[in-house]
Design brief:
Blueprint lengths: L24 E3 L6 E4 L3 E3 L9 E4 L14 E3 L5 E3 L7 E8 L3 H17 L4 E9 L2 H8 L5 E3 L4 H6 L8 E3 L5 E4 L5 H11 L1
Parallel strand pairs: 7-8, 8-9
Antiparallel strand pairs: 1-3, 2-4, 5-6, 7-10, 10-11
Length: 194
């Protein structure tokens, strides 16, 4: 089974899954603005007693932390926040007009997005130098292409170079952050959390 299933706990804190076949699963507790310990469970059966604690998250920008929220204008000149996509596995990346590898990656970005979107995936591209509308039009991108020409978001998340893909799980925990583009690595992490 792939994809997600939302499960609410009862008043006693217990939960159950309906019509889930046996198999290998990753279970990620999720609540906006909260961090969980542990942040996910790898289980090999359909029902389990899970014990975890929740507390208000201290947002960060490194692997293992809940991603810091931001709001930026998209290619349709509308505000989009990162946290509005909570509950999806997110690939967030940065791009610029002068970045050759970014342009090469943009040529296949829409195909990549279409391959995973029906399983609860979201792609978010932040343009640190360039026009989001031009990027979206040039490459036929239907996912959010956001204006970060002020580099406000990039200053928080950056390392030394772009592309700089981040993979966030359904509770917005950063599971992958690495300079450059290794499609196989990124796909492995995305598939793990979908």
């Amino acid at each position: 089974m792939t994809g997600s299933q939302n499960v609410m706990t009862g008043s006693d804190g217990r939960y159950f899954f309906i019509e889930v076949p046996g198999g290998q699963y990753i279970i990620t507790p999720s609540l906006v603005g909260h961090a969980f310990n542990p942040s996910n469970y790898e289980v090999s059966f359909s029902n389990s007693d899970l014990n975890f604690t929740a507390e208000p998250a201290i947002p960060g920008t490194e692997i293992g932390s809940i991603a810091m929220d931001f709001t930026a204008r998209n290619q349709q000149d509308q505000d989009v926040s990162l946290y509005s996509h909570q509950g999806k596995v997110i690939l967030m990346d940065f791009t610029a007009d002068w970045c050759g590898p970014c342009r090469e990656k943009a040529e296949t970005a829409e195909q990549f997005y279409q391959e995973y979107k029906d399983r609860g995936f979201m792609y978010i591209l932040l343009v640190i130098e360039g026009n989001p509308e031009v990027w979206a039009d040039a490459y036929g991108l239907s996912f959010p292409v956001l204006d970060d020409n002020s580099q406000t978001v990039y200053r928080h998340y950056r390392k030394n170079s772009i592309p700089l893909p981040h993979v966030l799980d359904r509770n917005l925990t950063i599971r992958y952050k690495k300079e450059g583009w290794n499609k196989a690595e990124v796909e492995d992490i995305i598939n793990k959390y979908l």
